[in-house]
Specification:
39% of the residues lie in helices and 19% in strands. The protein is α/β, with parallel strands linked by helices. It has one domain: Alpha-Beta Barrel (TIM Barrel).
């Protein structure tokens, strides 16, 4: 079995995902790390487009030079790869390329998605087993490039307990990316998530959101938990501290439990163009994170 690659022993550091700045060049994204007081960059885009195995060699060399000259660390390289895919060959081929890119850029972690699961057994069990087997094969590829794999709390794996099922079946070869919003949508608190995933949380993404006003046909208040299971479209993304996602509580628990990885601001302007410009949003939210961290006991 592939050995587990342990998370690095480093103090908590703040990064931001360049989903926040789809209009910027890669070089400008890197420059903004120091300008706005972050410690590193979570890479999802190159010149506004999602990084994929098709990224040109010229673009790779531009990024090589920029990262080398700036000294800015890459906290994670975020992929679109989904472990419940039926095209295992394509998944592993693209993973090989992206793991090599992560190694080239010094990224310690590759983010994966879980994807979709059937609602009922035995199809659900079969899908989990197949995804776990693919993760084990993927971990062998990633190990050659000295990078770790982590699956995000997203899609049908938004619940930390569902993600824990997958990681258990995979035998400890991968970790978790804890996106603060999605488990909250499922009715799970930060304490629930950390209880389910524990030290397998290798990367944390923070964002805030609030529920959109319920339509007139919504069930009567008190009929069910209004937060549990709400879809992404039923939420509005907002600045940290303006919504209901308990990011401040999460930061306190991360410190109390000795979390040593990155905390990355994920401000999804790429997918939500109505959000504020990064020149406004990034320094404002970096300041909020600094205030919350400084106030921790």
């Amino acid at each position: 079995m592939t050995r587990v690659v342990e998370p690095p022993e480093a103090p908590l550091r703040l990064a931001y995902s360049n989903l926040a700045c789809p209009e910027w060049s890669f070089e400008r994204c890197v420059e903004a790390v120091g300008e706005y007081g972050f410690d590193g960059l979570e890479v999802r885009l190159f010149d506004g487009e999602v990084v994929s195995a098709g990224l040109s060699e010229a673009s790779r060399r531009r990024a090589d030079a920029c990262l080398r000259e700036s000294g800015v660390p890459v906290a994670a390289l975020d992929t679109s790869l989904t472990v419940t895919t039926e095209d295992r060959g394509r998944f592993l081929a693209e993973l090989e390329d992206l793991a090599g890119l992560a190694e080239r850029w010094g990224a310690p972690l590759l983010r994966l998605f879980g994807g979709r699961l059937p609602a009922s057994s035995p199809a659900r069990e079969e899908a989990l087993e197949a995804a776990a087997a693919l993760l084990r094969s993927a971990a062998a590829v990633a190990e050659r490039h000295r990078v770790r794999l982590a699956v995000e709390t997203h899609d049908d794996f938004s619940s930390a307990y569902t993600l824990a099922e997958l990681l258990d079946r995979a035998g400890g070869v991968a970790g978790a990316v804890y996106d603060s919003h999605h488990p909250h949508r499922m009715g799970e608190s930060p304490a629930d998530v950390l209880a389910a995933l524990g030290p397998r949380v290798w990367h944390v993404q923070v964002k805030d959101a609030r529920r959109r006003p319920a339509p007139p046909s919504a069930p009567a208040e008190g009929a069910t938990d209004p937060a549990a299971g709400l879809g992404q479209d039923e939420w509005e993304l907002v600045d940290l501290g303006q919504g209901e996602v308990p990011v401040r509580v999460l930061l306190g628990l991360l410190k109390a439990t000795g979390y040593r990885g990155w905390v990355s601001l994920e401000y999804e302007k790429k997918w939500h163009p109505e959000l504020a410009a990064p020149e406004e949003a990034l320094p404002r939210q970096r300041q909020r994170l600094a205030e919350w961290l400084q106030a921790l006991p």
